[in-house]
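Question (not urgent): is this output format expected?
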Amino acid sequence: MDFKDLIKTCLKEKYASFSGRASRSEFWFFYLFGIAIYGVCILLAVTISFKFLWVLGIFALGVFIPALAVTWRRLHDINKSGMYFFLPVPFAIIEVILNSLSSSRGTNESISILFILVDLGVMLYLLILYCTDGDKKNNRFGKNIYLKKKKKRKIKATR
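Got this back:
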């Protein structure tokens, strides 16, 4: 599939589909599309008018669910649960709590730095998972999406 077809798949056909699998190209092209639109909106907001930030906000709300869904399906493609997406969340929450405590009580910042490093390590692990080849066979989340369809040639008998 090409770029346009993959974006159409994510935004129309599988808008909120958390089941099945998504190839690396589907995942990365969708995120490239999102980053490009964000960049254009920010550029328009800075150069023309800050009213374009509303467009950015509406776009962000519109693609939140498809972005989560394509990420979920991407993790399914490598035979991981979509819940892996939430791995950094507990460390980020603890980090925020420790930062708020350290500013009010002057507690030890080394523990906060430790959680920041753990959070970054978990995010790096997720990035590696997103870049990993998908399973080339059926897995618990669906059939193989990498099978190439063989074209059957009709053999015409000549007499």
